[in-house]
Design brief:
Layout: E1 3-9, H1 15-31, E2 35-41, H2 46-51, E3 56-59, H3 64-67, H4 70-77, H5 87-94, H6 96-105, E4 113-116, E5 135-139, E6 149-151, H7 154-170, E7 176-180, E8 185-195, E9 198-201, E10 205-208, H8 216-221, E11 226-229, H9 237-252, E12 257-265, E13 269-276, H10 286-293, H11 298-319
Parallel strand pairs: 1-2, 1-3
Antiparallel strand pairs: 4-7, 5-6, 5-7, 8-9, 8-10, 8-12, 10-11, 12-13
């Protein structure tokens, strides 16, 4: 029986969400017939990773360390079969600005953005917004809408600048960006491997938060967000969005799974927001929802990803030259 070690927790801001995701994956792996073990971790070192005894590691960690390349480096050094991106792609996709550069190279539209540094001014009211309002300020390398600030007015902007400055006093490692705010319909496309270096797109999910903003509260603390699988879109737009999600994942070097978020304006113009290489797997998460709309249970989804990891690991080992 294939043994799967599911990791939850991690040292980043999304630790509690990760633990919920890991618990759901654990049950999915049991449903798929695997010998599953759930392990809550903080920031494991190489010795700890090398001590893990499993055929496949499913690292359901979100954030800079768990999803952004740090953990992936350790897993690769330990020679472990694992689900998700290899370290370089994980690091690149975690960087929202880097992802935007890759999208632009692929001629995929994305809202204009730049790095934001509140240290450029002496007080919040002196901070100059680089774009016409409305804009959004958010961390470059965090997920789950951590540190998200929507700015529709100058007062909003000044308040957001002050709050970002306060946060950087607590989290000096965090880098923020300013992005032009697209007002429209939010869509997400989940993708899964369909073969070596191949992906297929799952059904589109439209996200309609009651308060108009899909922030952390709308994702996890309230139950008033409406999710619509296969939403009604203008002719050809669904295929366009799914095609762009697949193209961007290939350009980033994504492996096994990802979720690509879009905004649609005026029913025809779409822009990519970001790519999540280890999406959430909680009861309200979008990838399991898209899989269900495609006829896949959580057990089916987890089983497919575990088999992908086993096949990729075997292929990698066969490519290593013998001495």
């Amino acid at each position: 029986m294939t043994s799967v070690l599911i990791l939850g927790g991690g040292p980043d801001a999304e630790r509690e969400i990760s633990i919920d995701s890991a618990a759901a994956i654990y049950q999915g792996c049991l449903d798929a017939g695997f010998d599953a073990t759930l392990l809550i971790v903080d920031r494991p070192d190489l010795d700890e990773v090398e001590s893990w005894d499993a055929d496949v590691v499913f690292p359901a960690l979100h954030g800079r360390f768990g999803e952004g390349g740090g953990l992936q480096v350790l897993l690769e050094e330990a020679g472990v079969a694992y689900i998700g991106c290899r370290a370089p792609a994980a690091r690149l996709a975690m960087d929202k600005l880097g992802t935007k550069l890759i999208a632009s190279r692929c001629s995929i539209a994305t809202p204009a953005a730049c790095v934001f540094d509140p240290a450029d001014c002496d007080c919040p009211t002196q901070a100059i917004c680089p774009f016409d309002l409305p804009v959004v300020i958010k961390p470059v390398a965090d997920g789950s809408s951590v540190g998200l600030h929507m700015c529709h007015t100058l007062a909003d902007w000044h308040e957001a600048v002050a709050r970002v400055g306060d946060d950087l006093g607590i989290n000096p490692h965090r880098v923020y960006m300013v992005e032009r705010l697209m007002d429209g319909r939010e869509m997400t496309v989940s993708v899964v491997s369909s073969g070596p270096d191949e992906f297929r797109a799952l059904p589109i999910i439209e996200i309609s938060p009651a308060a108009g903003v899909y922030d952390f509260e709308a994702k996890y603390a309230r139950n008033d967000t409406v999710y619509t699988p296969n939403p009604e879109l203008a002719d050809g737009l669904a295929g366009q969005i799914q095609g762009q999600a697949l193209e961007l994942c290939m350009a980033l070097g994504v492996r096994h799974l990802a979720r690509v978020d879009f905004m649609i304006c005026e029913d025809t113009h779409c822009g990519v927001l970001e790519v999540n290489t280890m999406p959430g797997f909680t009861k309200s998460s979008l990838m399991p929802m898209a899989a269900a709309a495609d006829g896949m249970s959580m057990g089916d989804l987890c089983g497919h990803l575990v088999r992908c990891a086993i096949e990729d690991h075997a292929q990698t080992k066969s490519e290593i030259p013998t001495v």
